[in-house]
Design a protein that fits this description.
Layout: H1 2-5, H2 19-27, H3 32-45, E1 49-63, E2 66-76, H4 89-92, E3 117-119, H5 123-134, H6 138-149, H7 161-168, H8 172-182, H9 195-204, H10 211-220, H11 229-236, H12 240-251, E4 266-268, E5 273-278, E6 281-286, E7 293-296, H13 298-305, H14 311-347, H15 349-354, H16 364-371, H17 375-381, E8 386-389, E9 392-395, E10 403-405, E11 411-413, H18 414-426, H19 436-445, H20 452-461, H21 467-472
Parallel strand pairs: 5-8
Antiparallel strand pairs: 1-2, 1-7, 3-4, 5-6, 8-9, 10-11
Amino acid sequence: MANEIKLTLRQTHKLVMTPMLQQAIKLLPLARLDLINQINQELTENPLLEEEIVQVKEESSESNGSAESTTDIEYTKDKGEENKTDIDWETYFQDNFYPQFPSGGYTPERPPIENTIRQKTSLREYLVWQLNLSAEDDRDRYIGTIIIGNIDDDGYMRSSTEEIAQSVNVTADDVEKVLGFIQSFDPSGVGARDIKECLSLQIKNKGPTSSLAALLIDRFLDVLEEKNFQRISKEVNAPLKDIVEAVKIIKELNPNPGNKYSPTEIQYVTPDVVVVKAADDYQVMLNDEGIPRLKVSPYYQEILKNKNKNEAKEYVEEKFRSAVWFIKSIEQRRQTIYKVAKSIVRFQREFLDKGLTHLKPLVLRDVAEDIGMHESTVSRVTTNKYIYTPQGMFELKFFFHSGINLSNGDMMSSVRVKDMIKEAVGGELAVKPFTDQQLVEVLKNKGINIARRTVTKYRKELKISSTSKRKRRFEY
């Protein structure tokens, strides 16, 4: 098992996806709160898992006439545990374990409360972000942006492919191809044109065990509410109990996949990573506060030491393997977050020093190659993770975006270009607002070569109205 554990996540695509490997990958994209819920669930289901008690001891010392408090964290053991054999963590954890904070007793200041409040990402923003990272060329990206603009808050595309094709002067097949691409995005079921297509898209991700549920969605969706499962059982020649199980699977699907991306919902964000400047360098620290630290119960180790095979020992061995792998998976997640954050800090040093104008273009491949992992691993671990920096609180995925060519051959972040468009519109004459072509010229004068349709796309992403609407606003 030790050899199996040492496999990196970028190698797993070559292997049979065992339940344990699936669990390790499943933990990567979990948000902080979801991870805590998952840990609590495992604590309930696996008797071999225990929470390590963390005791915080306060010591005060006087310096320059004022009292300062230093915090030391100790992991305390239960009474009677001193003589028990602890797990040899080095057998299960990689050698490059990263501490929560750097040595020297330094503890970073907590971010101000106003920096932990943000509006939830809208469905359109989330889809555009996925599109920009994965579209093969500007043409598909442009078509995809128009498609996403026609997806409502519930996640459904409300225009036909023919209407979109006509508006962007391409064929319906071109639109259908890009739509199929968008329908592979998260949340599952997005971009569907009706409820049947929405559920069918979701059931694809459930695997071959859901083939009967897929058949019911395709042929019997309109009559499922009647609950005449016996008739359906006869028509598809399947046992009644299988029909009932398939219906249960269908009920777990979300008929409105976009509804969890309410743009008006306020979120309070706790950072997963904290970056602070110390001297001339930046320290990257994982924020493990509030996340239960797990250990394997020493009580059950005595059962494992028993050389006699019996049903109880087999059960404990199974739960032991599950517990160790779960702890290992959490540690794998921690280390991957750390490595990705460390890499982002290396790439975006100028942004941390000087702010948004110095944000560099960055794609998943850059970080993946830097830390020796697969792009899919980097993509998973940057989902729903937040980093607190001297420039503010950001999602990790904020740092991944395309670049625009400058006239001198350099590249500029698309985020910075959008900011320049916003600045230009903010300084325009109310009676004569800039057209998109004029914005192209404004950017060109600053050394940025950009197509008009790209300016139009960026303007829409910034939710800036068209020229005529901006002008009409100031007419009386």
